[in-house]
Amino acid sequence: DAGITQSPRHKVTETGTPVTLRCHQTENHRYMYWYRQDPGHGLRLIHYSYGVKDTDKGEVSDGYSVSRSKTEDFLLTLESATSSQTSVYFCAIRSGTGDFAEAFFGQGTRLTVV
Amino acid sequence: DQQVKQNSPSLSVQEGRISILNCDYTNSMFDYFLWYKKYPAEGPTFLISISSIKDKNEDGRFTVFLNKSAKHLSLHIVPSQPGDSAVYFCAASVRTGANNLFFGTGTRLTVIP
Fold it and tell me: A111 φ, ψ to 5°?
């Protein structure tokens, strides 16, 4: 299994509170991604990183920010959680070497905003 | 706007028979396609992929077919086994930059023993 750890695995938070999800990798991969999975939508890209301090927005970035201060850690922050952000969040990593490399996913974080 | 579509939310197949999962895409710039398998409470796991320069890729019981003119791909599982029961996601990418993956909505496959 690819060395990806997401924390926490489950979280319940109140509307309006800030929340930070952590993704930690031990593979030294260049690319890291945050996705959310919702019924009827599949997985949608929130933000991604192509190196330390290099990040960009995905399809559904509103209300989210990210930071990557070290190769191994990619943080996703909900500045002020809303009920629409209740979802399962997945982190993914990809090496970026060669012609194309598939992404490996973490176990997911189930976030409930009440 | 969903660029990758899986129009069948679910599929049930008898053990030993063929499972065929379908996927359509709209963006002609996509040049790499992947299938992921997902069990409950786990992250998606990579299953098989195909480049746009090919029309078929096979790996054991799994074969992916790509029809570029129709913007359609399919995953064949033969023979289907109960352990194949999972949600299958089709994904597409452009092989430049960060290679972001665009996913379909998934098809839940149930293999009946």
Answer: -110, 130
Give the tens place of pLDDT for each residue, B18-66. Answer: 999 999 999 999 999 999 999 999 999 999 999 999 999 999 999 999 9
The amino acid sitting at B25 is Y
Å between A112 CA and nearest CA of chain B: 15
Nearest C-alpha neighbor of A47 from the set A26, A77, A71: A77
Whether A56 sits inside 8 A of B101 (CB atoms) is no
Using the Cβ of A54 and the Cβ atoms of chain B, whether some distance falls under 8 Å is answered with: no
- Sorted by sequence, the CB contacts under 8 Å of residue A94 that are 6+ apart come out as A29, A30, A31, A32, A33, A101, A102, A103, A104, B99
Instruction: Write out pLDDT tens, residues B54-85.
Output: 999 999 999 999 999 999 999 999 999 999 99
Is the pLDDT assigned to residue A1 strictly greater than 60? no
Instruction: Work out the average pLDDT over A66-93.
Output: 97
| Coil, helix or strand at residue A83 | helix
Dihedral (Cα; B86, A32, A5, A44), 10-degree rounding: -40
Distance from A15 to chain B by nearest Cα, in Å?
24
pLDDT tens track for A8-53: 999 999 999 999 999 999 999 999 999 999 988 889 999 999 999 9
| B43, B89, B98 ranked by CB distance to A106: nearest | B43
Query: Secondary structure of A5-27 in the HEC alphabet?
Result: EEECCEEEECCCCCEEEEEEECC
